[in-house]
Amino acid sequence: MAGFEFHRMAQDGKARSGVIRTPRGEIRTPAFMPVGTAATVKAMLPESVAATGADILLGNTYHLMLRPTAERIARLGGLHRFMNWDRPILTDSGGFQVMSLAGLRKLTEEGVTFKSHIDGSQHRLTPERSMEIQALLGSDIVMCFDECPALPAGRDRIAESMRLSMRWAARSRAAFGERPGHALFGIQQGGLEPDLRAESAEALREIGFDGYAVGGLAVGEGQEAMFGCLDHAADRLPEDRPRYLMGVGKPDDIVGAVARGIDMMDCVLPSRSGRTGQVFTRHGVLNIKNARHQDDPRPLDEACGCPACRGYSRAYLHHVFRSQEIVSSMLLTWHNLAYYQDLMDGMRRAIAEGRFDAWQTAFHAARAAGDIEPV
User: Fold this and answer.
1) What is the DSSP letter of 292?
2) Among this protein's residues, is 266 annotated catalytic?
3) Under DSSP, is residue 183 helix (H, G, I), strand (E, B) or coil?
4) Per-residue model confidence (pLDDT) at position 375
5) Do 255 and 293 reside in the same domain of the chain?
């Protein structure tokens, strides 16, 4: 794990704050990773993403292997240079996207054969090929190749999938080899079954990883079930390694996950919502396309320092969204990403100061109060 270190600085209940140190920079935890699926966070420049407070981005193995291909990116200097992002990057393994293709894929012990959603061409992903692609991309944190069945699913299906993922995890570990300065994370599976989650965690501990992810959640089970799973699943993972909840989520999902011991999260929600006019604020979610905003001179959130809130009114943002101007996606995405990073910063401070419970209470109370109409 040379060049990759995790330090817990504080803990309040199960909530943890700390730092992950990598050769490309530090990642403050709890950390939210904006998603740069195709080597870009949509509607944002890399320096704009950095200005929101993001320490790390997520890249997508499946999409990048299809276009422009990992080999082309490697020839052009790697993913960091290709997309002009000099901070850490985590790449997922491609497993989730491949599994979501359903009728376009064939699953075997060896791996997955699938057809591209772009042109129908046939491709193959195995643990070894996933490690090769992620090495070509040059990501700082690599995810092992796994299978992620959609929920709900029968116990037998979940158990079979989890055990296959553990065999693939061992193959991923072997294929990853020794790459100083780069980290490999294992992925816990097991659906909502406590004993299967425990079995998966034990298998991953035995293999040994630089960090551990909770996979197989945020796939249709609902928040209550997800939190119920996290109440025991995160505790099964090593305390001295980062814990990453994949694909989560809404602000209250994130707060609940941190309260249950999670250190890292990612989701397309803030950027995708910005492009569709959904805005996250301290007072909850607002839809900028609604007519009630057309004469409103206030900012989206008076406590936010992002460019959308510093320089533009709700009335203007309503106008450019309804007019389908590109600046709408830019400003609303910037605001949402800034809100998410402010959320993480607030939690880090609260955990460090031992007041996380009070912070959570205030967070939920502000959202329950709702957005305040102009006088």
Assistant:
1) G
2) yes
3) strand
4) 37
5) no
The candidate with the shortest Cα–Cα distance to 342, out of 303, 316, 313, 375, is 303
What does the chain come to in residues? Answer: 375
Q: Which of 12, 55, 92, 371 is catalytic?
A: 92
Name residues whose C-beta falls within 8 Å of residue 130's C-beta, 6 or more positions apart in sequence: 61, 93, 94, 95, 144, 145, 172
Is 304 found in the same domain as 226? no
**Active-site residue flag, 195:** no
Beta strand pairing status for 25-29 and 15-22?
Answer: antiparallel
Indicate the residue type of 289.
K
pLDDT digits 0-9 by tens, 203-233: 999 999 999 999 999 988 999 999 999 999 9
| Shared-domain flag, residues 63 and 125 | yes
**Which residue, of 266, 282, 314, is where some domain finishes?**
266
**Enclosing domain of residue 234:** 5-266
Domain count for the chain, please give it: 2
The string of pLDDT tens digits covering residues 33-72 is 999 999 999 999 999 999 999 999 999 999 999 999 999 9
d(CA 9, CA 11): 7
**CA gap 279, 282 in Å, rounded:** 10
Separation of alpha carbons 288 and 312, rounded Å: 13
Q: pLDDT of 90-116, one tens digit each?
A: 999 988 887 777 677 889 999 999 888
Are 82 and 204 part of one and the same domain? yes
Q: Which of 140, 146, 266, 301 is catalytic?
A: 266
- Residue 170 amino acid letter: A
